[in-house]
Every structure is written in structure tokens, then in C-alpha cells.
Amino acid sequence: RNKLELLEAEKYGLDARHSQAVRLYDAAIASAKNSRFIHEQGLACEKAGFYYKKIRDVRNAFDYFQQARACYEEWGSRVKVEFIRRELDGLNIH
After folding, report:
1. Rounded to whole angstroms, how far apart are CA atoms 44 and 32?
2. Which residues, at least 6 apart from 3, have a Cβ–Cβ distance to it below 8 Å?
3. Which of 3, 5, 33, 38 could form a cystine bridge with 27, CB 3.0-4.6 A?
4. What's the DSSP call for residue 81?
5. What are the average pLDDT values for consecutive 10-residue runs of the chain, which has 94 residues?
6. Which of 50, 48, 39 is nearest to 79 (CA)?
């Protein structure tokens, strides 16, 4: 279920249908969390972060990237943690 919700969120994001995209990113994150798919939860958070970055909502991008990093740390993926760290550094949140 979370994979379908994530794909739909990406589609709505491409179509500039903000409210539907946001609702589906959050649904994908919740579904993955409820299923204990930490890597997929991390991916959904990461994709949400990129969506918010694309629409220049830096605060929400930062929050979702932080969630993604936490998921990837729990999952044990040092490569993804480092990738997300670079994204966070590039957002220039003070």
C-alpha cells in the first residue's frame, strides 16, 4: 500500500496538485511505518523532502529530510545517511 501511495504522491506532485501530493506522501510514510518497513518509510520521507525542496518550502523539506535520515540510520544505511546529510547541509537552515 505504501508504495502505491508514494507513486501517487509523486504523480500529483508532478501535476502541481499540492494538497493531494502532501496527503499521499504522509499516507505513504504512515503506511510504511505501520508495516515496520523502515527503509520504505525513509524513502517516502526523502521523496517528500525533495518535493518540498522543489516547491521552495525549505522548512518542510528540512523536517522530512531529518525524518528520512533517522529512518536510514535505524536501517543501517550509512550511504543514505550521508546522502541525506548533504541535502540537509544544502538547505541552509539556521
Report:
1. 8
2. 28, 40
3. 5
4. H
5. 96 96 98 97 98 96 98 98 96 76
6. 39
